[in-house]
Design brief:
By secondary structure, the protein is of the alpha+beta class. The chain contains eight helices and 15 strands. A hairpin with a 2-residue loop joins strand 3 and strand 4. Helix 7 crosses helix 8.
């Protein structure tokens, strides 16, 4: 707004107010007296522009966006800790119980046993918050000696960890709060509360899906994959515990009988005809092809909550594969035996099964 208020422009206006019978050339007394004041005014205009940008939510930096969002009770979601399944066995190969609170490590991360699932299986919480806890599986080593323990392994993610909410996500939540008012168990209210639960990456709400008072929630985890049964159970308990369904024990209003489900996966078999560049064969580029398709599928999964149906497009697959070194051309691509886009069910995300080239 104040881009034109430069040092030269301000000094020029100041000198213009001085009578012409006075020496105003650079180095004169008048010039040297006005120049420092013009410089300070130019700096003040720069700061005024900064203040103006920080005042409005669409241009505010993170620090001031947080203060603006807080006025509507919206705060950035903090980083959360990953919960994984740990499997423990003794030297006989039998499942083996460990003490709650036992700490084990894998690479640079430490994990603590927080809850027993069944004999020899525990919920292990990563001590480091954030999505980094979602990345490692395999053998874990006790930090302190555990008698009779022979093997310990992290096998799967139960509740994904999440990084602290990004600035643009917070900004979008702030504007969403202005466009749709969350109140008393309406759809916006359910979405707001479900998305705040650790490990949830998105939700679709189906009111009156099985008669009056019934609500179905379909969720995807924060890694944009099929949620674990543990995460589904956690969300169900927070929203509307099964044993007290409809009684208002959870977050759901009294009379709302809520069913929580996870997204499903649709397996895709892709067949295509690839022309290779000289010196390349299918075995050379197959891992890169699979990585590109999985990247595309992950991008689609991120949009699942905001779309009635996901569409796997042949054109997108071909365009992305053409970026791979070694591929000269691609044609005759089909998905599950048909040379047409694949429209998924409303609660399904794509998963690559087989690719033939």
């Amino acid at each position: 707004m104040y881009e034109k208020q430069t040092f030269e422009a301000i000094l020029g206006r100041m000198l213009a107010r001085v009578p012409n019978n006075v020496d105003k050339r650079e180095g004169s007394i008048i010039y040297d007296a006005l120049a420092p004041a013009a410089a300070e005014l130019a700096m003040a205009y720069i700061q005024m522009d900064v203040i103006l940008n920080e005042t409005f939510a669409d241009t505010a930096s993170r620090k001031y966006l947080i203060r603006r969002a807080a006025e509507r009770g919206i705060n950035p979601n903090p980083a959360t800790k990953t919960v994984l399944k740990g499997v423990f066995k003794n030297s006989d190969g039998n499942f083996f119980d460990i003490p709650i609170g036992s700490r084990l490590s894998l690479d640079n991360l430490n994990y603590v046993a927080i809850e027993k699932i069944e004999i020899g299986q525990y919920k292990m919480e990563c001590e480091t918050a954030g999505s980094i806890g979602n990345q490692y599986f395999g053998s874990i080593i006790p930090i302190e000696y555990i008698p009779r323990l022979a093997t310990a392994e992290l096998t799967e993610i139960l509740i994904p960890g999440e990084d602290e909410e990004e600035t643009e996500s917070l900004r979008q939540r702030y504007f969403n709060s202005l466009e749709s008012e969350a109140f008393g168990g309406n759809i916006a209210d359910y979405k707001d509360k479900i998305n705040k639960i650790q490990g949830v990456g998105g939700v679709k709400v189906y009111p009156v899906w099985n008669g009056g008072g019934s609500v179905k929630l379909t969720i995807i985890d924060s890694e944009f994959k099929v949620p674990s049964t543990s995460l589904i159970s956690t969300v169900q308990t927070i929203i509307d515990p099964i044993d007290n369904s409809g009684q208002g024990v959870g977050i759901a209003p009294i009379g709302h009988k809520v069913t929580v489900e996870g997204v499903s996966e649709t397996l895709t078999n892709i067949t295509t005809n690839i022309t290779f560049q000289d010196g390349y064969v299918w075995e050379d580029i197959k891992p890169y092809v699979e990585a590109k398709i999985n990247e595309y599928y992950n991008d689609l999964a991120k949009e699942w909550a905001d779309n009635s149906n996901l569409v796997v497009r042949i054109s997108q697959i071909e365009v992305r594969l053409l970026d791979i070194t070694g591929i000269l051309d691609i044609q005759d691509t089909s998905i599950n035996g048909a040379q047409q886009n694949l429209v998924l069910e409303s609660n399904s995300i794509p998963k690559l099964d087989v690719i033939i080239a």
